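User: Hey, my collaborator sent me this sequence without any context and asked if I could get a structure. I don't really work with proteins. Can you help?
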Amino acid sequence: MVSSRKISRACEENVLFIALTGDSAPHFTTIADFVATMSPYIVPIFREVLAVCYAEGLIGKRMFAVDGCKISSNCSKEWSGSKAVEHLQEKAKKIREWLSAHEERIGVSGKAVKSNITDSQSAKMPGSHGVIQGYNGLATVDDKHQVVVDAQAFADGISLPSARICRRH
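Assistant: No problem. I've predicted the 3D structure and written it out in structure-token form, which is a compact way to encode the shape of the chain:
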């Protein structure tokens, strides 16, 4: 579950989520902000978990499986709707503000990557059900106990990540 709105709803309806949040039911914007600001802290924690798994013999040293999937971004539905003049003027204002605050992104092919105002880091990409606005998620798993040893999300052309095992020295 990657949508902050779905997670927020689950915090109100799903017993496991209610227990994990202490029945606090955070708003979806709080969850989205948490995810956006926690990325510098997730990688070190992930490495520590891998170090423990490796020390406990849970990670094999042979074959790794790499798999990927398309992940739709959580784009706002406010950007679709009627042709009312006030609504379009609000959209135009938001677009002007966004353009002044963001630089053009260049993809691996050297061409400009199309951006979405609601989720500017996502990209349009072909998927099994047509073109989606989203990310390409990849996970690398070891053969012994299927421990995830690497996971990444990309919004443009990608190359497969190499498996990264964290070892204690």
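In plain terms: The helical segments are 4-13, 15-20, 28-55, 85-101. You can pass these tokens on to your collaborator as they are.
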